[in-house]
Structure formats: structure tokens, C-alpha cells
Amino acid sequence: MNLKLVASLLASSAIGLASTHAFAQVAGAQPLGVSVQVSTAIIDGWSVRKSILNKPVVNDQGARVGVIHDIIVAPDRSVSFAIISANQFLGVSHHDVAIPVEQLDFKNGKLVLAGATKDAIKALPEFQYTKMKATPAPRADFQHH
Description:
Strand content: 25-35%
Keywords: Signal
Oligomer: single chain
Distance between the termini: 31 Å
InterPro entries: PRC-brl_dom (IPR027275), PRC_barrel-like_sf (IPR011033)
Domain PRC-barrel: 51-113
Mean pLDDT: 74
Protein name: PRC-barrel domain-containing protein
Number of helices: 4
CATH class: Mainly Beta
Signal peptide: 1-24
């Protein structure tokens, strides 16, 4: 399964969650701010937390090259980068790098980064989070809205 599907699912979920329409409750379904169709798509989808975060990343030969620590969602709601730790000891990462999600794939139930090695990932510039504001900016503040 390609991570482009992840981007599509997250984007469609974000669009549905941003909807302000009220929906009547239907017996057996509680849409929670989204349509029944969107709720069904969410249920049929899969969880990034359960399926990707803290999961190992391997190369084409099956050698472990890192662990997924985070998924970056761009202001346009697209999934853009996976943050991979190339060096982890007792759950503490020492060198996180940003990898475009297009470079990752699922093969035989594993996250694969083709052509990667631990040394190649360690050689990439370290990813550091910017200091976040205490409150995220409203969507209206972005130019594309």
C-alpha cells in the first residue's frame, strides 16, 4: 500500500472534520460532525498511529534502517514527510531526518525505504522541529483559503 493513499485518507478526513454541518443521529451510527459516508470511510481506513508510528523502516534487503517517529501534515492538509530516526537507543532518538512520504512504500507488511542504509540516513541533515506557537494559526490565515 502506497503512502499516497495515507495522504488521501487524511486529507479527506480533514475536509470532513472541518465541516460545520449538523447531522441527525442515525440508529447504529454516530457521525460526530462528519457525514455517514465519511464516517464509513474513516472506519474502513487505517490508523497512522497504529500502522506507522514507531514502526521499523527497512530497505530493499529487509535490513532495518530506522523507525518512524512522526508524520508531517502540511498546511494544505497533505501528508508531506515522515520523520525517521536512524539512531535510537531505549526509545530515545538521536538523529531524526525528514523523508518525503513518496519515497516510502509498504511491501509484505513492512515499511520500505528503497536504497536506504543506516549510514545514508545518518548522513542526511538532522530534522529539528521549529518552535511552535502555543495555539495553532487559524486556517483562514493561510493564503490558499
